[in-house]
Design brief:
By secondary structure, this protein is of the alpha/beta class. It has helices spanning about 1-25, 35-45, 70-75, 90-95, 115-130, 135-155, 160-165, 175-180, 200-210, 225-235, 250-265, and strands at about 30-35, 50-55, 80-85, 100-105, 170, 185-190, 215-220, 240. α9 packs across α10 (about 225-235).
Length: about 270
């Protein structure tokens, strides 16, 4: 009789051990992100618990991206696919793959703006927690650290933001909201290279002269030739910012963009 009393306890212990082993050895959640905005945040929050694949490289415009057959298969095999909503290739693909686990991240605004990115990161943490409830605490802890890293990057660029405040600039349309968030006065915007006509170019140069523009800010994903031409005609520095995080992550990319702006604002030293 004494031995039989230990059987339920032994069974409970084995069940608990099995559960812990299952959680510990669980395969990472396979998440596919369309852009590096989503990929950077998901990687930081997911850690080793999430295997992240990002489809669109940071230097490529999502509107001009063509999906390969291999990437289409990756989309099909992912446990979940995070996307913004403007990826046309995904809309077309989802029609032919109704079983694809797509999840739109409903955040309005440019994710390169820190306040917007913070909202997006919080939304992603919730989505990951919904997929893996048992790892909610880990996701929350990593989110907290990620937000601290973002705050540190924002604090580091404070002197540059102060120098840019109310400075008249011309910038690419795709990053005009980021430029405005930095405190610049956007005197005019220019489109992607293939959409910039000679007439539009002349009008922008005229606008730049009238507004006493001292900086032209282009978008890496838009081509860069139009901004270079405008800056040359106005005789002012050109800065090219990326609208998507590099492979080093979002906080590091904020610092890289800030360094590019700082270099343009720093007068060149005269040759000895």
């Amino acid at each position: 009789m004494r031995a039989s009393k230990h059987i339920p306890m032994a069974g409970a212990f084995l069940c608990a051990l099995w559960f812990l082993t299952t959680v510990t050895l669980a395969e990472p959640l396979r998440v596919l992100c369309t852009t590096t905005q989503l990929g950077a945040a998901t990687t930081a929050i997911g850690g080793d618990d999430v295997a992240v694949t990002t489809i669109i490289p940071f230097g490529v415009c999502p509107g001009h991206f063509d999906l390969s057959p291999r990437q289409a298969e990756q989309l099909r095999q992912a446990d979940t696919v995070f996307f913004h909503g403007y990826e046309r290739f995904l809309t077309t693909l989802a029609t032919g793959m109704p079983d694809m686990a797509v999840q739109r991240v409903e955040i309005t605004g440019n994710w390169m703006i820190p306040t917007v990115h913070r909202q997006g990161a919080a939304a992603l943490a919730e989505l990951l927690s919904a997929k893996r409830p048992e790892q909610r605490e880990q996701f929350a802890a990593r989110l907290t650290q990620y937000l601290r890293d973002i705050d540190a990057a924002v604090a580091a660029q404070a002197p540059i933001v102060a120098a840019l405040r109310d400075r008249p600039v011309l910038c690419a349309a795709m990053n005009s909201d980021v430029v405005a968030d930095l405190g610049c006065t956007v005197a005019g915007v220019f489109p992607r290279d293939e959409e910039l006509s000679a007439q539009r170019l002349a009008a922008l140069i005229s606008t730049g002269k009238k507004a006493h523009v001292s900086l032209v800010i282009d978008n890496l994903q838009s081509g860069g030739k139009g901004g270079a031409t405008i800056a040359r005609e106005l005789g002012v520095p050109l800065v090219v910012l990326t609208n998507f995080p590099t492979t080093e992550g979002y906080p590091a990319t904020l610092r890289q963009n800030a360094a590019a702006l700082q270099a343009a604002l720093t007068p060149a030293k005269a040759a000895p």
